[in-house]
Amino acid sequence: MPRVVAGKFRGIILDAPKGDNTRPTGDKVKEALFSIIQTRVPGSDFVDLFSGTGGIGIEALSRGASSVVLVEKSGYAASVIKGNLNKLHLSEEDDIRLMKSGYDAALNALADEGRKFDVIFMDPPYRMAHKAAVTAADIINERDLLSDDGIFIVEHSSDLPFVTDVINMKLNRSCRYGLAMLTFFSKNG
Q: b/e map of 61-99 (b: 16 or more CB within 10 Å)?
């Protein structure tokens, strides 16, 4: 079961959707991710695309993010996220919002609201990670969703092709953790 690793909700066990349709980010990868972005999280506006359990966004809020948007298309997974938010007594008044939507529609809706984010994280199903990352990067750029020093992070498989030079953003780094990879991008220029 996924858990909150650090911060004010440290140690809380989160529920995960049953079955193979959701793959929560493992503790090792989550700890590595937040170790890399630890100075960016406090006070940040954070988006967790393909939220699954809500674990990455909840971790960000636990570590001091100012606002978190969780995006999940699956009705079943969204209901699990609602349960996790209820377990932590969190609501939109706590600056955490759940959008039941596809990632592309959610990004466009957030842009329509005039939002900008410091961290945009996505953990799509590995088989569609590359295509989703290309599409998301295009929307993020076209709709100016990333703050000037913001980062876009994609979790993907180390075993599947992930061509970074077709993603219209500046590649910062890639880190491998077993079968999982974290690839970090920022705005071009």
A: bbbebebbbbbbbbeebbebbbebbeebebeeeeebbbb
Provide CB contacts within 8 A for 145, sequence distance 6+.
107, 110, 111, 115, 116, 117, 120, 139
Pick the CATH number of 27-186 from 2.70.70.10, 3.30.420.10, 3.40.190.10, 3.40.50.150: 3.40.50.150
Q: pLDDT tens digits, residue range 28-70?
A: 889 999 999 999 999 999 999 999 999 999 999 999 999 999 9
Decide the pairing of beta strands 45-49 and 117-122.
parallel
